[in-house]
Amino acid sequence: MPCAEMSFGGVRATEAFKHNFSDRWAEFLRSEFPSARHIAIASGVTTRTAENWLAGSCKPSGDTVALFFLRYPEAMARFMAGT
Questions:
Q1: Which residue has the higher pLDDT, 5 or 53?
Q2: Percentages helix, strand, coil for the chain, rounded to the nearest 5?
Q3: Distance, CA of 32 to CA of 39 (rounded, Å)
Q4: Is 3 a member of any domain?
Q5: When comparing pLDDT for 59 and 6, which is higher?
Q6: Which of 33, 34, 50, 58 has minimal Cβ neighbours within 10 Å of its Cβ?
Q7: By CB neighbour count within 10 A (0-12 exposed, 13-18 middle, 19+ buried), where does 9 fall?
Q8: Structural domain total, the chain
Q9: Taking the model in full, what pTM does it have?
Q10: Is there a domain that residue 38 lies in?
């Protein structure tokens, strides 16, 4: 099967997911952590980076997202699915 046929719901769905990722990421973080400082400690980033994630001004790296999926699988699946 060609890679183009194996997309995650097609181009529109993929673009929509990318567009909404920062909001979903921030929503997940707010649901699991009381502050940017707590997020920073849990993820090994600076408090400023955690604040930027909460503000939606930057996104985490793929390895950070993967680690959160390993640590918080149910919550991550729920928020990344948009439910």
A1: 53
A2: 75, 0, 25
A3: 9
A4: no
A5: 59
A6: 34
A7: exposed
A8: 1
A9: 0.77
A10: yes
Four-residue CA torsion sign, 39, 44, 48, 53: negative
What number is the average pLDDT over the span 60-81? Answer: 89
Domain boundaries, position 39: 22-80
Residue with tokens 């950070």: 64
In a domain, 31, yes or no: yes
Calculate the CA 69 to chain-centre distance.
9
The answer to whether residue 67 is domain-embedded is: yes
Label residue 1 by pLDDT band (50, 70, 90). Answer: very low
Residue 47 CB partners (closer than 8 Å, separation 6+): 36, 37, 40
The CA-atom distances, in angstroms, between 15 and each of 4, 66, 80 are 14, 20, 14
Q: What is the pLDDT of residues 10-51, one digit of tens each?
A: 778 788 878 888 998 999 999 999 999 999 999 999 999 999
Closest C-alpha to 63, from 51, 71, 55: 71
